[in-house]
Amino acid sequence: MNQALETSTRKVILSMLKTSGPLSVQEMSKQLGITEMAVRRHIHSMEKDDLLETKLVRQAMGRPTNVYTLAPKADELFPKKYMQLTLDLLDELLEDQGHEKIERLFEGRQDKLESRYQPRMLDKSLEERVAELAQIQNENGYMVDWSQTGTDAYTFSEHNCPIAQVANTFGQACQCELALFRNLLDAKVERTECLAKGANKCVYIISQK
């Protein structure tokens, strides 16, 4: 079976389990029109990727059978409208309470992130703090790389912005990220490129105070 068909069948199985699960191999085989062996191969692959959960179900007649449902990790594969909801709520807040409320909202988020991550910066050199910040941002999906450009001087690049749609509309998101970096690194930080302003990445120049 070619790779495209393998991927397509896998997606169909995931969609079936999302809409009609839990299902047995036999039930999936009938719905898909492929052999049970082929279904089991896909099931095995998805179990290795932690996308499925299995449960043994007793039947009125015959042996117990395994049925499959989606694991929590699989939920990430389906479209979400969280970002649009966030934008709608922020627009509503802006209209109702004005720019100052939006400013305070983003500043509050910055304070929480700073409190969460500040302990990870303790007793570290500037280079170690930059490396730790890269780790933090990668954990949050920013696809970071960084390099040393001189003595206590670094370039820090983010190739993805998970909150890009919010940042495009509300510049406070970018301002607070810059302030967060300055406080966590205890260093001079300047942003020279910004995804929200049309660049291919966000670039920060970091140096000792």
UniProtKB/TrEMBL annotation:
It comes from the Bacteria. It comes from Paenibacillus planticolens. The keyword DNA-binding applies. Residues 6-66 form the HTH deoR-type domain. Keywords: DNA-binding, Transcription, Transcription regulation. CDD domains: HTH_ARSR. This is Helix-turn-helix domain-containing protein. The keyword Signal does not apply.
